Amino acid sequence: IMVLYVAILAIALYYLLRYLWEKIPVKNLRNRAVFITGCDSGFGRLLALKCSKNGIPVFAGCYTAEGRQSLEEEAKSYSGKLVAVPLDITNDESVVKAAKFVKENLQLGHKLWALVNNAGAFSIYGPDAWTSIEQYKQAFEVNCLGMIRCTHAFLKLLKESQGRIISVSSVAGRTSFPCTAPYSVAKYGVEAYMDAIRQELKAYGIKCSILEPGIFKTPLINKQAMEARVKHVWANVSDEMKEEYGEGYKDDCKKYLFCVQIKRNPLPFQFFFGALT
């Protein structure tokens, strides 16, 4: 019995010390640059602005020219320099060019402290039977392979700084929901990849973290976008499939996600910034 008590106490002490250690804030953040993907909108844009406002140098990967321009305009009065970088995470050349740009434009004395793999897409919404293999490939390319592609490109810089890799997964990467199979499959891949490299990169002093947001109001998930996705998938299924499922099932797909209350909640965003600092 005494041995059991000692073991429980030792485990509890370990986790307490680990928790306290992780709560120690990172110093000299003004000399530690971050690269964030998917900064055109949503969590990525909010995080880029938050970092810049707090004096952290930011390289913000944006898919569109409009996103880059508006982000730099909004951040120009902040103390941390923000540079928007063209980025298509599905394109090898684009990712390599972004990594080269960051390396060449780090200010003297600065290092790349963190890579935040935030970019993602929720382009398909409907039952598996309505979904093509090509649509699975597209979802996996953006939500999983894009994250791996960026990690490979920036890994050398992160080894030099003993920094951290933060990848945005989803609650759908832990629990699958109806009508979200392509997205969930990709997010499960994110979790598996991060679990593997977390162990491999520990020897280099690199910390790997996963964030799993639930259902929140971002451009990725809103009523109009979700309804448009169902309409798009339905338009491309065969007449036989339409007859089998019927219009009522299509309407149920539209309603399903919105049975869950979607909120604007600042708490997940605090975890994004906390993972960096």
Automatic annotation (TrEMBL):
SUPFAM superfamilies: NAD(P)-binding Rossmann-fold domains (SSF51735). GO terms for biological process: steroid metabolic process. Keywords: Oxidoreductase. GO terms for molecular function: oxidoreductase activity. PROSITE patterns: ADH_SHORT (PS00061). The keyword Oxidoreductase applies. Gene3D superfamilies: NAD(P)-binding Rossmann-like Domain. InterPro entries: NAD(P)-bd_dom_sf, Sc_DH/Rdtase_CS, SDR_fam. Belongs to the short-chain dehydrogenases/reductases (SDR) family. This is 17-beta-hydroxysteroid dehydrogenase type 6. It comes from Acrobeloides nanus. The lineage of its organism: Eukaryota, Metazoa, Ecdysozoa, Nematoda, Chromadorea.
